Amino acid sequence: MLSKPNVEVSNKSMLGRLFRKNNKNIIGIFTVVLALLFISPYIYIVLTSIKPSSDAISSSPTFFPRQLSLENYVTMFNQMPIIRYFLNSFTTASISTILAVFLGALAAYGLSRFSSKTGHAFLLLTLCVRMIPMISIAIPMYIIINVMGLIDTRIALIITYTAINVPFSIWLMIGFFNNIPKEFDEAARIDGCNVFSAFIKVILPVSLPGLATAAIFCFMLAWNDFLFALLLTSTNAKTATVGISEFLTAYNLDLGPMTAAAVSFSLPIMVFSILVQRYIVSGMTLGAVKE
Amino acid sequence: MTKESRVSIYFFAPAGIFMLIFLFFPVALLIRDSFFEIDMIGQGRGAFVGLSHYVDAIRSERFIGATTNTIIYVVVAVGFELILGLFFALLLNTAFKGHGIVRTIMLAPLMIAPLVSGLIWRFMLNNQFGIVNKLLYDFNITSSRHAIQWLSDERFSLFSTIIADIWLTTPFMMLVLLAGLQGISPTLYESSQIDGANKIQTFLYVTLPSLFPVMIVAVLIRTVDAARTFDIVWVLTQGGPSNSSEVLSTYMYKTLTRYGQVGESSAMAVMFILLLLAISSYFLFVMFKANKK
Amino acid sequence: MKKILLIMGSSLLIALVSACGSNNEDDQTLTVLVEGGSPAQTVAELTKEEFEENTGYEVIIESVPYSGVYDRMRTELTSGAGAFDVATIDTIWLPALYQGLEPIQEEITEEMQEDLFPGLIDGASMNGNVYGLPTWTNAKILLYREDLFNDSNNQATFLEEFGYELSPPETWEQYKDVAKFFGNNDTYPELYGTSVFGASSGDSVASWLDHVAQAGAEAFVIDEAGEIIVNDEDHVSALEFLNDLVNEEGTVPEGVMETASAETSELFYNGNLAMMLAWGHFFVPANDPDTSDVAGKVGAATMIAGESGIGVVPGPWYQVIPSSSENKEIAKEYLLFLYERNELYADALGVAARQSVFEAYGQQDAFAHLNELATTLNGEQTQNRPSTEKWEEIESEALLPAVQNVFSGLQTPQEALDNAKEIIELIVN
């Protein structure tokens, strides 16, 4: 008899727990549905890219393909040297990333180790650079690149992207280097390293997460750029974004191949970003928020 | 000069020289151009005209219109992104089973090029071939297949470009705010529970204030980026119809490359940069004050 | 320490300098700028080898998107870089670019002038100099669905409703009637009569100007005396004509403000349009089963006529030589070389600049549109846009907003064009 209330209590708490657990599951399902809805535009583009071309642009579009076809991908390859454009995008983005991160890390190290006050100026500088409308430095940039005889070369794009990315990477790296105790450098120098080799051998390896974050964002900016590639290249160094935009001309709407190119362009970077997502947040906020 | 500062200069020099040539020099050219009458091909730099490009720009309806649109664009886009991002971040913060997967799914648009986002939405919002109007009709939300002319009705065009922006960057807000939420110390929640606060009170008096600095940073970065937006608007509407979705960056592009008015467009760019600087210094000031507290 | 930095700094410099050198040294090249995917690109690629065999000059083809051609030319001429030797450009860009181009009238013989369509050389002339050699010319003509027009049911119903025989329209009134007839036809619920261009591009302005010509205008927007005539009777009535079509329910596709050539042709290929006023060369893809669902059912007719007869704004493209080019002589040779091969443009796009090519190709069924195109181009009201370097600005700041304001019902044609006149006055002065 005495045990009865106990049972009730335990029943109640069990129900409560069950309810709370369900509650969590409901939120979970709700969120998953919302998230799927949110990325449905992208799913739609992926699905459109594997429709036959006559269904890809149709006056009564359907979400799911009625028929699967790789026609759009074949057209994409036939219509333009898209592989070369992708390679251009990749080489310019990766070389400019390496340059920007290296130059940035070098400068940041100098600033963080040997002069403490200038570091703060780089938050402001980085912000200022982010405020310049790209279009407005495009013409002076064109003239400079042209004087150097670099129009329509990948070097032109590499220079431009590096220039835009260097302040960002300096700022980000200063934050990381400030967190590395000076004892590291001293220990390295006692072992017989000079300042430069201490930087290369000791400091860079321990700041890999920071370098990774900087690299991801420098790469993204270069990879996604449209404006500079449009102005500074025409044939040899044309990048994928410009190529994709060319599927829509005054005479033609090649929406099918356009979706195929858009998917091929964005899918690899998406997979990559999922692999490196833990580095992303601190980079997005210029290092102001750490995960 | 001490040895220390000399070493510091050596380390800084490569990046410094690079920035000097390829970043500050173009900006200096930009500022100089804004004071000159630069017209037509081959004739190069003309007369010094002082501030007249600035005065002309401020007086022109088109510049004011584009500025207004830019402000609407920024306020609406960033506002929605903040609300939606916070909503998703709070949902994800409940740490249900599989929240990692949702986070990964939501990451997708973040990495898409703005140009591609513009193309995707142009394709979906198209009046004749777009799926959005088709679905609205199929679900009986609208009465006709062409009820809402997203891109060609001057009442909606600006909002259609905003939709593309919100879609592209809400994940950014979500990720940053989520990181902020996870950074809030659990002891704060515990003490508010001891004080007997309910969930809404906890949210208002613990979560929001702790999240505030992170929010400021996120809003600042998004404000600056949204104000500069070019690719999305250019691909979706080119600023039309009837200039209803013209923002500053598209208007500057037109004056520069289409109309060849280097001086005017440089003046607009300088004013634009100054305006953004003013706004962001305000943000930084607010953040600084909040941090002090 | 110092050494390392010195090495790094100098290697960076060397990398940049050596990259500079690599681009300039080879003199045996001719760089041509074309629109990517255009007939100019196709023809340039086809003839590349032959030109190299003839002259020893390698042709380097740079292709950019449509608006990129203008933007690149503009930046190129502004900076005087000498990056291109020849460019193929749209006629509307000539007035804004000619100051940076090389005059070529000495290369054009009388024989050439006679063979080219009338007005083509005029279209490239400024201040007594000729700055471009036409590669092809084009105009909007009427493409229609033969199967719908030949259907005996349709013919009977049309006769009953409108009191005359159904046939490809020749006048504004007929055009409106036929568009209304097919647009509100219970037999074809998915079909519109025709389309109206209102998208944010020059296409919409050009299409309105076609009708301005038909209404009897002697000049577009600005007359010879420099008077702004954009709000005169001809300009207004043409805009009213288009606006009537827009306001007639079901006649033209909704979303006028995102419709231009590309969208219209896509709708036509999908079987949603009974007629379209489209660039002549669309006849070829419209009858190609790979691109079009209505292949084999498409007929071509001349552009419709207004009160003053047939008229269009021709859309020729020209080859030009930038003054900054370092290979002007060989560039001129290249222009003449391609003039001799003008029929290649007909192969690529179904258009050309020489009347002799039109005549030869018009015989073939696949190029049946060429005869209609030739008649349209020789139409009595056919004329060029005014040549002003401010055209781009006038078009997108004054004319396009006027057209769009009318179609969205914000202003009447008269109000919109009065307003446009004020804006143009500000631009011109």
Overview of the molecule:
The complex is a heterotrimer of chains A (291), B (293) and C (429). Chain A contains 14 helices and no strands. Chain A has 291 residues and is mainly α. Chain A has two domains: 3-73; 80-246, MetI-like (MetI-like fold, Orthogonal Bundle), CATH 1.10.3720.10. The relative contact order of chain A is 0.13. In chain A, helix 1 (3-49) crosses helix 13, helix 4 (82-114) crosses helix 10 and helix 7 packs antiparallel against helix 10. Chain B is mostly helical and 293 residues long. A two-stranded antiparallel sheet of chain B has the order 1-2. Helices cover 48% and strands 12% of the residues of chain C. Chain C contains 19 helices and twelve strands. Chain C is globular, with a radius of gyration of 24 Å. The model of chain C is unreliable at 4-25 (pLDDT under 50). Classes of the chains: A mainly alpha (291), B mainly alpha (293), C alpha+beta (429). Chains in contact: A-B, A-C, B-C. Chains A and B meet through helix 1, helix 4, helix 5, helix 6 and helix 7 of A and helix 1, helix 3, helix 4, helix 5 and helix 6 of B.
Provide a brief overview of the structure.
The complex is a heterotrimer of chains A (291), B (293) and C (429). Chain B is an all-alpha fold. Helices cover 73% and strands 2% of the residues of chain B.
Which features would summarize this protein structure in a list?
heterotrimer, B: 293 residues, mainly alpha, MetI-like fold, two-stranded antiparallel ribbon, 73% helix, globular, C: 429 residues, alpha+beta, D-Maltodextrin-Binding Protein, domain 2, five-stranded mixed sheet, three-stranded antiparallel sheet
